[in-house]
Write a sequence for this structure.
């Protein structure tokens, strides 16, 4: 594409802060989320879940439940199509256990009944007989040769011989001579870290409404980050053709990666098929914690060598992740992201994934990166402390920049890390005085950003307005950003455009809303669809004027002759061309579909000041500033919102949030009271500084912004707390009991 | 269990419903009356997404029985705007981009309105502590605090 290396720099609409199109619906309670719709004759369903961490299913007797008046259908794993593909089978087995239950909360049967109370009563009548098996919930324990085996035969050939069958994959990245690098170091620090599994913690529990008719057609309404992915998965599990299943994405009450797969949707469809009635399932919060995707838990070793003037000579990390009871590739992303912020001549990362009796991991905002970068940035900070060096100076001295061969292979194009570090250095926060007992920490962060399959249609209405049909659920204001980019390209005002998110029968495939892809990929497709419509409008004007269509250009929302030789005609605006379109060839529309590449990586730097209460072990966050390269901030308020929200999720991960398992392998804190996410009174204002280093892969320079901000907080907080209390902490979360323990040792 | 007949007032209008004795006000609002603006995020009073007014008290509708609405006045997010005119808080949340996914927004607006009726000129810290029972996972709360304070300022000068 010709524009690829010349991003546009002057904007009229992009970079402004218009009201979002779904704003009024959402502040008045009118917006419809997953649990907010009903259907005539609808049944309510509930799911029976395993009380065991690990057990063989001997038998499931559903006859008494089926006989209960008001019960219309009961399903188990036997009601789903057999799957040959490993990935599909894992997703399906996670929705409904087959042969074994693999974690506390694993689903094994479901009941649809005329009322929720009857459905719940019927669950109690299902006789499930188990043969309890030994379990393992800790990643390091799961990798030992004598560990209980969660699933047999799941190891890829990449796994070295002699490891536990729980180890499903192994990866390695890096370049250079590590031994020579460490030999050149003046100081080497080697530390081991652990991070707890955390949950995305979206406030909206999973919910869906399925309706299948006896002719095999079905409609599904659900809160999801990707309706097309839901269609693909559910159609395979139900043995349906994709065209017969229409999936509509409701408004979505948060996802953060956790709504990129299915849990209850195929179950509701199977119950609807069996009962002949619409079926609604709404998860409880307890179910969300127990049976939907938390992050990986991790155990990480990092070794870094540095010269006394702050140059990193060699860096190595060993990452052991567990994505729960099913194979999971998240460690590959952690291993690739770990040292991405550094320009290194010798670097190596090794990763292993191990099965444990925990729920199946789902993506959570930059999956795999926060853990790895937490460990790396903690060791860099300790080296800076021991060598008496400024931590920002050291990061600048070693920073990846354009032309750097990254630690995971590719050579970076234009990236914003140095500009981001310099902005942090120049910010008053960095030099503000600290009181005794307070500490300041910082960390860099990185995320790849994705592109992916994208399809957009743009319709020019005869009254001069424009409708955009896209296929990615809007979690944080993307409809506004898409409308802005269309307005910019067409040269019309923002309020002339309405962007909607289509169901799976109304548009071609769109990948899930993930990987920070939507503003980048859907935006790019929208710009190209607008250019397609502009070309058609220029052609219509040429026809009206009786000149060659090559002699017409589009400028400021209107077609005009390209120059004096093309003829003297006054410009025709979009509205004027649209008004006569039925007489010049029919309706005008633009379309674009592609598999987007060139997303452009994103770096951020976070600065935080904390104070630790030495009596209670509680950490108070005093000041927090986020610096991030957005490429081009299309709607700066929602870019700031991503930076602030990601930072606060990271603060929760660093200080409080964790999955706590008992010796019985059961989850002990499946609720918001005991799994404590940050609340308003825990936090200071989150200041934001947006840098704009244009992404060469997007005509406006846009980079994804959603994921990078959850990466730096873990190490930034750990470094701040460690400096505040004078003892380094190597485990997350830094909950008050852990801090008190560190203080008593220190 | 025999159902209970309840006569109440919701958003200024007389309303009647029947409900089970153990049925929450939230389930009544959402499932019997079609008022789905209040959301169930937890069902245990920990998230505040179902915040409504019961007489002059801010409550989690998931912790109140439907039967308790008998003779009371219930206020939900659907009654916050005055016809087609948004409440200053609602407008302020849009103007300040104080919502991302929006699932917590109804509860937070109901709770913030209750605060400003008691305390028209709160400090930032007072807003943060008042809203500590309303979880938001998207925004980090920063823009919510700004939106509440800007609305408070506009309401004071109105």
């Amino acid at each position: 594409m010709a524009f690829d290396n010349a991003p546009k720099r002057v904007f009229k609409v992009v970079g402004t802060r218009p009201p979002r199109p779904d704003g009024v619906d959402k502040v008045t309670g009118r917006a419809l989320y997953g649990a907010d719709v009903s259907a005539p004759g609808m049944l309510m369903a509930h799911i029976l879940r395993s009380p065991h961490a690990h057990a063989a299913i001997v038998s499931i007797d559903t006859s008494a439940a089926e006989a209960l008046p008001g019960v219309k259908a009961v399903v188990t794993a036997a009601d789903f199509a057999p799957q040959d593909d490993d990935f599909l089978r894992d997703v399906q087995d996670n929705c409904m256990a087959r042969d074994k239950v693999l974690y506390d909360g694993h689903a094994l049967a479901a009941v649809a009944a005329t009322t929720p109370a009857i459905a719940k009563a019927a669950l109690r009548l299902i006789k499930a007989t188990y043969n309890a098996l030994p379990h393992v919930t800790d990643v390091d324990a799961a990798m030992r040769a004598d560990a209980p085996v969660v699933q047999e035969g799941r190891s890829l050939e990449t796994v070295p011989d002699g490891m536990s069958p729980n180890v499903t994959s192994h990866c390695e990245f890096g370049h250079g001579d590590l031994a020579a690098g460490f030999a050149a170091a003046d100081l080497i620090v080697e530390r081991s870290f652990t991070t707890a599994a955390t949950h995305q913690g979206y406030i909206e529990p999973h919910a869906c409404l399925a309706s299948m008719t006896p002719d095999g057609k079905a409609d599904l309404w659900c809160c999801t980050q990707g309706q097309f992915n839901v269609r693909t998965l559910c159609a395979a599990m139900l043995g349906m053709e994709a065209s017969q299943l229409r999936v509509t994405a409701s408004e979505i009450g948060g996802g953060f990666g956790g709504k990129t797969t299915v849990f209850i949707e195929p179950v509701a469809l199977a119950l609807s098929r069996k009962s002949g009635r619409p079926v609604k399932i709404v998860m409880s919060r307890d179910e969300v914690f127990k049976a939907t995707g938390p992050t990986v838990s991790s155990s990480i070793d990092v070794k870094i060598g540095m010269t006394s003037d702050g140059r990193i000579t060699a860096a190595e990390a060993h990452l052991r992740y567990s994505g729960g009871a099913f194979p999971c590739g998240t460690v590959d992303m952690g291993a690739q992201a770990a040292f991405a912020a550094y320009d290194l001549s010798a670097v190596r990362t090794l990763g292993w994934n191990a099965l444990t009796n925990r729920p199946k991991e789902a993506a959570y905002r930059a999956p795999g990166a926060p853990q790895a970068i937490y460990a790396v940035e903690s060791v860099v900070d300790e080296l800076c402390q021991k060598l008496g060096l400024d931590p920002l100076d050291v990061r600048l001295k070693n920073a990846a920049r354009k032309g750097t061969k990254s630690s995971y292979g590719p050579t970076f194009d234009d990236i914003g890390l140095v500009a981001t570090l310099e902005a942090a250095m120049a910010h008053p926060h960095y030099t503000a005085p600290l009181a005794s007992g307070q500490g300041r920490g910082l960390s860099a962060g990185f995320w790849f950003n994705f592109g992916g399959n994208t399809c957009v249609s743009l319709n020019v209405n005869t009254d001069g307005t424009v409708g955009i049909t896209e296929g990615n659920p809007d979690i944080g204001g993307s409809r506004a950003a898409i409308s802005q980019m269309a307005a910019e390209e067409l040269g019309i005002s923002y309020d002339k455009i309405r962007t909607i998110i289509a169901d799976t029968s109304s548009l071609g495939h769109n990948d899930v809303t993930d990987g920070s892809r939507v503003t980048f990929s859907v935006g790019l497709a929208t710009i190209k669809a607008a250019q397609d419509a502009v070309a058609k409008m220029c052609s219509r004007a040429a026809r009206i004027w009786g000149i060659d269509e090559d002699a017409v250009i589009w400028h400021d929302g209107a077609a005009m002759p390209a120059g004096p030789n093309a003829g003297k005609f006054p410009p025709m605006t979009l509205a004027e061309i649209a008004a006569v379109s039925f007489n010049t060839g029919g309706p005008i529309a633009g379309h674009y579909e592609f598999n987007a590449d060139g997303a452009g990586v994103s770096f951020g730097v976070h600065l935080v000041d904390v104070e630790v209460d030495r009596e209670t072990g509680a950490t108070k966050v005093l000041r927090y500033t986020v610096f991030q390269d957005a490429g081009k901030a299309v709607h700066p308020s929602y870019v700031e919102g991503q930076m602030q929200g990601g930072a606060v999720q990271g603060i929760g991960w660093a200080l409080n949030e964790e999955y706590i398992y008992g010796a019985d392998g059961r989850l002990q804190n499946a609720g918001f009271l005991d799994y404590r996410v940050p609340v308003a009174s825990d936090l200071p204002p989150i200041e934001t500084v947006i840098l704009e280093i244009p992404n060469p892969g997007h005509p406006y320079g846009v980079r994804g912004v959603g994921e990078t901000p959850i990466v730096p907080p873990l190490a930034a907080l750990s470094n701040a707390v460690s400096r505040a209390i004078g003892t380094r902490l190597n485990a997350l979360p830094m909950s008050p009991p852990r801090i008190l323990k560190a203080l008593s040792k220190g | 269990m025999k159902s209970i007949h309840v006569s109440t007032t919701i958003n200024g209008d007389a309303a009647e419903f029947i409900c089970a004795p153990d049925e929450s006000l939230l389930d009544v609002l959402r499932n019997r009356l079609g008022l789905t603006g209040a959301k169930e995020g937890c069902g245990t009073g920990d998230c505040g997404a179902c915040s409504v007014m019961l007489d002059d008290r801010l409550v989690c509708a998931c912790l109140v029985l439907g039967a308790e609405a008998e003779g009371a006045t219930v206020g939900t997010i659907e009654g916050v705007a005055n016809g087609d005119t948004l409440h200053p808080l609602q407008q302020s949340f849009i103007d300040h981009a104080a919502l991302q996914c929006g699932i917590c927004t109804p509860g937070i607006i109901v709770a913030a309105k209750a605060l400003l009726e008691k305390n028209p000129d709160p400090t930032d810290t007072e807003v943060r502590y008042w809203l500590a029972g309303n979880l938001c996972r998207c925004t980090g709360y920063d823009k919510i605090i700004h939106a509440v304070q800007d609305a408070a300022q506009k309401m004071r000068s109105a």
